[in-house]
User: What shape does this take?
Amino acid sequence: MILNSYAKLNLYLEVINKRPDHYHNLKTVFERIDLADRIILKSRPDKKINLICNFPFVPKDNLNLAFKSAKLLQDTFAVEEGVDIKIIKRIPVGSGLGGGSSNAATVLLGLNKLWKLNLLPKKLVDLAKRIGSDVPFFIYGLPFALAELRGDKISPLKALNKVRLWHILVVPKIKVSTPIIYAKWDRYSKLTRPKYDVKILNLALRKRDFPLLSETLFNSLEEITFKLYPRVRRIKESLKALGLKSILMSGSGPAIMGIVSSRKEALALREQLKGNRFWQLFVTRTV
Ligand code: C5P
Assistant: This one.
C-alpha cells in the first residue's frame, strides 16, 4: 500500500490560554498542502512493527508517531499481524509543517484498511487525538479546517472546499522545539493580538480577497520564535522586501510561507530566493 502523507500550514493560530494539563487551548486554521512524504505499508505475518526511513534523524521506535499509531492499533484491537513501514521524507522535520503528525494519521488510515479493522472515522479521530494534537486534522482529509481546544477538535470549513492557494515556502535548516515555544508563550502572551477574528480570514479566503487576507493571517507564536531565532524573522523580512504581503510562520516554526496569486509567481520568487544554502525552498499549493 503506497500513500501520500501531506503537510499542513497554519493560516491562523491564536493561543487562547494555558490548560491544567499543560497544553494550550487554540483557535487555528489548518490548510493541507501538496508537499508530501510517501509512506509504504506492507503487512507482516509476525507481530513486528518495523520502521525504516531515508532520513537519519527520524526515530525508528515508539518516539516516532507513525510507529506509535501502528502500536496503538495493534494493542487496542489485538491485531495478530505486524507491518513494515517505509517513510520517504520530503517534509522537513521539526519545521511546523506537521510531517510527523501527518505520517501518524496516514498510518492509522492505511492500517485500518490493510489490517481490515473497519474502524469508523470517529474512532480513528479518537485514536488520532491520543497520538498528538495535530493528528486529527489529517484524518479528515480536508483542504481547510478550523481547529479548537488542543487543536484536535476539527470543524470542516465547507465553504473553502474549492479554494486553492499557491505558496512559496521557506524552511531554514534549524530545529525549533514546540514545547519550548509554547512554554515561552506563558510569559510573552501579550506580545501580539489578532487584528481580526478568524471569521474574517475565512471570508477573505472565500472571496479570494488577497489584501484582506494579508491583514487577517495571524500566529501568536511567531514573535516568540522570531525573538529566539532572529534568522527566522529575517526570512519574513526578505519575503517582504520582495513585495510579498501575505507572509506567516506555520505552527511554532521555523517554516515561513508566503501566499502568492499563481504558480508562476511562486516559481519566480523561488528563483530570486535561491542561493542561501541554509534555506530549503518549496513551491506548494492547497490539496
Ligand atoms: O500534541 P503534541 O504532542 O503535538 O504537542 C507537542 C507539545 O506542544 C506539547 O507537549 C505542548 O508542549 C505543546 N502544545 C501545547 N498546546 C497545544 C499543542 C501543543 O502546549 N494545543
About this structure: The first strand starts at residue 2 and ends at 18.
